[in-house]
Write a structure and sequence with these properties.
Largest sheet: 2 strands, antiparallel
Order of helices and strands: HHEEHH
Helix content: 55-70%
Distance between the termini: 26 Å
Shape: elongated
Structural class: mainly alpha
Number of strands: 2
């Protein structure tokens, strides 16, 4: 499980839900919204370091990169109460 790839997958699911809504495809909209929420929950459970409040690059590493935190932050994956800490980490990387 890689943070950047899954952040993009989350964003794609969100956008697919919006497209389905615009097309009047409510069943598809519900499906994509549910999948996005499930991914968001799993993403934060598995990749958010609860001690440092940064996203790890993937499962099995303790490395936290700029891009591994920038995309989850930009795509709205980070929990609201952790957004500031993650933003500070991103800013610290220039």
């Amino acid at each position: 499980m890689n943070s950047v790839v899954n952040a993009y997958h989350f964003r794609a699911l969100e956008l697919l839900g919006k497209i389905a809504a615009q097309l009047g495809e409510s069943a598809d909209e519900k499906l994509f919204v549910a999948q996005a929420q499930k991914l968001k929950t799993s993403f934060n459970e598995k990749l958010l370091d609860k001690k440092r409040f940064v996203y790890l690059d993937g499962i099995g590493t303790d490395h936290a990169s700029l891009h591994g935190n920038m995309f989850p932050l930009a795509f709205g994956l980070s929990p609201e109460k952790q957004t500031e800490k993650i933003s500070q980490f991103v800013q610290s990387r220039g």
